[in-house]
Amino acid sequence: MNKIIPLRVLAAATSLGVAVFLLVVFVLQAAQPDYDPRAQFMSELALGAWGAWMLLAFAGLSLAAAATALNLYARAGARLLSALLAFAAVLFLATGVVTLADSALAHLVFIACAFIASGTAMYLLPRAVAVFAGIEGYVVSWGCGLVMCGAVAQGDRFIQPGIAQRVAACALLCWFLYVARQLARR
Fold this sequence. Notes:
Blueprint: H1 7-31, H2 54-76, H3 79-97, H4 104-128, H5 135-154, H6 161-185
Helix pairs in contact: 1-2, 1-6, 2-3, 2-6, 3-4, 4-5, 5-6
């Protein structure tokens, strides 16, 4: 694998995917004056005037997940983790293709399943890949997973749903970057 795609390229692809997602979301939030990021979900940005750009945001998220999957497979032969993250990558892309306006149910199922697959990979990582078996691997991987799940669970209870979703997404994005950084060091 590392002869076909250099591992530095996979780490850079993860970072690029995260950056694209964040940039598109931030720009669209600023460009749509009636949009309230505290109360509205990021997927609702697709319903605005420049909503088609959300496909690029979800493609960025998909790229980050796919690059992380390939990196884990190339570095550690982690087939299950790679499969979970490849599945998540496909679902993140499907989330961008099928907007809330097209089919709210399909969109929500895609994004929920993508987060579940990613969360499962976060949980399994320290147990499955020796590089992450130390205390740091557990704290970061399980910590990001706990923040992601906790934010989703508390959305609309103790914190506003838009904030909860952003906290969950940030935890996932931080985890992608952590995995890429750790694997690039080895």
